[in-house]
Amino acid sequence: MISSEIDIDIRFSETDAMGVVWHGNYLKFFEDGREAFGKKYGLEYLDIHAKGYVTPIVKSEIDHKAPVYYGQVIKVITKYIPAKSAKIQFEYEVINVTTGQLCATGKTMQVFLDRDSRELELISPDFYKEWKVKYEL
């Protein structure tokens, strides 16, 4: 399994009136994790776009475990989950670096659409197959 990690400082604008990170921001943290993963492993959105595809999220899940507050630091661990079909799957752990607590877990699934026609690709694009071979996935 391949994975990446990124630390994120919690900003005031990411909290609600109670000073807790608003639940919707976890999807943004997952996005930050995917971007860090893409940079580390050569699977960046702009590269996918240049190959003629877009990869929208079609499924997401979040399980909230503990609160995070303004001024704390989180670590997002992003793990690639191999699949035989034409999709990209990740699992996430959000750890509060300040307290050491596991704050959230989650999953996302992306599919390949032709960049221009927006038609769903049922077979993995060649570049993605080659990427998976490179990392023995």
Walk me through the structure.
The protein has 137 residues and is of the alpha+beta class. It contains three helices and seven strands. It has a five-stranded antiparallel sheet with strand order 1-4-5-6-3, covered by helices on one side. Strand 5 and strand 6 (102-111) form a beta hairpin. The longest helix is centred in the N-terminal third of the chain and has 17 residues, at 25-41.
Largest sheet: 5 strands, antiparallel
Structural class: alpha+beta
The number of distinct β-strands equals: 7
Shape: elongated
Proportion in β-strands: 35-45%
Alpha-carbon Rg, integer: 16 Å
Helix content: 10-25%
Quickly count the helices.
Answer: 3
Show unreliable segments.
none
Mean pLDDT across all residues, rounded? Answer: 97
End-to-end Cα distance: 8 Å
Largest sheet strand order:
1-4-5-6-3
| SSE ordering | EHHEEEEEEH
Organism: Dyadobacter beijingensis
Protein name: 4-hydroxybenzoyl-CoA thioesterase
Keywords: Hydrolase
Family: Belongs to the 4-hydroxybenzoyl-CoA thioesterase family.
In short:
This is 4-hydroxybenzoyl-CoA thioesterase. With 137 residues, this protein is of the alpha+beta class. Helix content is 23%, strand content 35%.
